[in-house]
Amino acid sequence: MSASTRATKRSAAAGESSAEDEPIQLVASRAKKLKSAAAKPAAAMPAADAPAGSAKPAPSLRKLAPIFTPRAASGASAEASGSTTSSGSARVVWRAPLRFRGKPGCLLGVCGAPFAAAVEKTLALPENEREQTIKVAAFDLDGTLVVPKQGTWPSPSDPYDYKPVFANVYKRVREEYESGSVIVIVSNQKQTTPYDISKPAKKVLTWQQKIAHIAQAIGCPMLVLAALADDRFRKPAPGMWDATMQELEVAGGKRAWVKVGGDGSSFYVGDAAGRPARGRIAKDHNDTDRKWADNLGLPFFTPEQWFQGGDAEDYKLKGWRLSWAKDDAEPSKPAIAPASSPEILVFVGPPASGKTSYYRNHFEPAGYEWINQDTLGKRDKCIAKAREALQKGKSVVIGERRSCARLCIPSDAPSCLSTDNTNRDKATRAFYVKLAAERGVPIRCAWFELSSEQVVHNSYYRAHHDLGHEPERNLIPGIAIGAYFSALQVPTQDEGFAEPPAVVKFRFQGDAAAREAYSKWWQ
Fold it and tell me: What InterPro entries does this protein's entry cite (predicted)?
């Protein structure tokens, strides 16, 4: 089917995409009569930064597909001319979504050849002078480049529901490209349902159409990335930057060529900057943009700073970071060590507090075993398993709830059985104290003490980072973390323990690369 036939059919659709529209590729094409543009100068592009609705569509564009035809009061005035930039960018091509652990996690769109000019310029240099020569100018989308025309949230069905945040937005981004930078847009676009490649949601297609308009308005090559889920691609996690570097390598460049830090550094502009309320201006909805830049070592600017020359503003980052920890040094000996005779050992601590690693490092080698309620499921099964072990001469402890603590009872083997349980309250721990008395063995307690912020950090890190030999982990629901801390009763010796509970501080274990990853912002 010819381009003109497609345009005619789409025009008949009265603003809706036809069945022939490809969800993975949206094209902001030129009018057919501009085919010979390569042989003569392109029509002048009207100011892309004019107020919404100020541009009028050129007559030659009346047969373009409705989704690419300028409408009255649209924010994409640059589309009116149908011309392209000198670089010839006129398409936004959506490749297959990037995946994380087998699931689609990030949309990847390419407008023109975003790395071509920078790579060509760098390749012209002597090989020993190529490092730190490419400048990446990265931008958030919503609240940074564009905002909805009406309301707080973009329309899920109107690809024209946007306007530039400031009048000079499109022009400034285009000028940054013309100065030699690579333009990259990175946006969190979390979907309420998993992304379906065969049948993308209407709001995803709408968003892709909107990006086509915005890219045409800016008028230069660019890379567009959109994180669809709560995974490694979602800011502040570094997935979208890693994807950017991979695209650079595909274009013939190298990660080492990108300049990070110092004069002329790559940079990032975003509105989620952790700023408090300022007069009539509400506080920032998040701080993830600033954290993303911090993770990558990029200079960070708010839209007010970069587009308007505004001053830096106060901010506060929420969450937890390793560099904030007062004492992360590994102690010379563990806070609690295996006993030489049978005992019950109660691990008290929230999920993602390092109990599994502590068990493996210090108690599994000594023959301690446990009953894991996460594996067995129901309490009745745990009781049956414990009863079976008791009949074999082993002592057991049963967890009351599914979570992550360990209770260990060595036998004469010596081996032990333990349960998976946070043991957060006295009532739960009392059962184990009673069991110890019945069995005639001592009972001790190890309390894994860390803040809820660090638990959240640990949860995100292990869910969104490749842990190598470790099994994949899912995010722990915030409600589960909150429930633990709201019901926590700090263990004390007077509950019946043989000695004061040992306090175990979380200490990260891993090589230099793993530690560097753990040190980043993950939420």
Answer: HAD-like_sf, HAD-SF_hydro_IIIA, HAD_sf, P-loop_NTPase, PNK3P, Polynucleotide_phosphatase
Report phi then psi at 111, rounded to 5.
-110, 115
Using CA atoms, how far residue 213 sits from 62, 91, 109, 146, in Å, is: 16, 10, 13, 12
- State the DSSP H helix or E strand holding residue 481, giving kind and residue range, or none if neither: helix 478-487
Give the whole-angstrom CA distance, residue 167 versus residue 307: 9
Give residue 510's region: left, alpha or beta (phi > 0; psi -120 to 50): left
pLDDT number for residue 138 = 99
For residues 215 and 90, give the distance between their C-alpha atoms in angstroms, rounded to a whole number: 9
- Helix count and strand count (H, E) for the chain: 14, 16
Cα dihedral value 257, 258, 261, 262, nearest 10: 60
Helices (DSSP H) in 124-232: which residue ranges?
A: 169-178, 202-218
- 469 with 414, same domain: the answer is yes
Nearest to 361 by CA among 467, 504, 465: 504
Segment 352-368, tens digit of pLDDT: 888 878 878 887 787 77
Spatial contact of 517 and 436, defined as CB atoms under 8 Å apart:
no
Q: Beta strand pairing status for 267-269 and 300-301? A: parallel
pTM over cut 0.90 = no
The first and second tokens of residue 130, run together, are 């190529």
Residue 300 in contact with residue 290, Cβ under 8 Å?
yes
- Is residue 253 situated within a structural domain? yes
Residue 462: burial class (beta carbons within 10 Å; 0-12, 13-18, 19+) = buried
**For residue range 426-468, what is the model confidence (pLDDT) as tens digits?**
988 887 788 778 777 788 898 999 999 999 999 999 999 876 6
Give yes or no: residues 409 and 276 share one domain.
Answer: no
The domain in which residue 93 lies consists of 87-308
pLDDT at 473: 81
CA distances from 411 to 355, 414, 441 (A): 21, 5, 10
Residues 240-264 have pLDDT tens digits of 999 999 999 999 999 999 999 999 9
Number of residues that this document lists for the chain = 523
Cis before 236 (ω within 30): yes
Q: Is the preceding peptide bond at 51 cis, omega within 30 degrees of 0? A: no
Alpha-carbon distance of 102 to 123, in angstroms, equals 35
Domain holding 479: CATH number?
A: 3.40.50.300
Are 105 and 236 in contact by the 8 Å Cβ rule? The answer is no
Give me the CATH number covering residue 105. 3.40.50.1000
How many Cα atoms are found within 13 Å in the side-chain-facing hemisphere of 84? 23
Does 81 map to a domain?
no
At 270-319, the pLDDT tens digits run 999 999 999 999 999 999 999 999 999 999 999 999 999 999 999 999 99
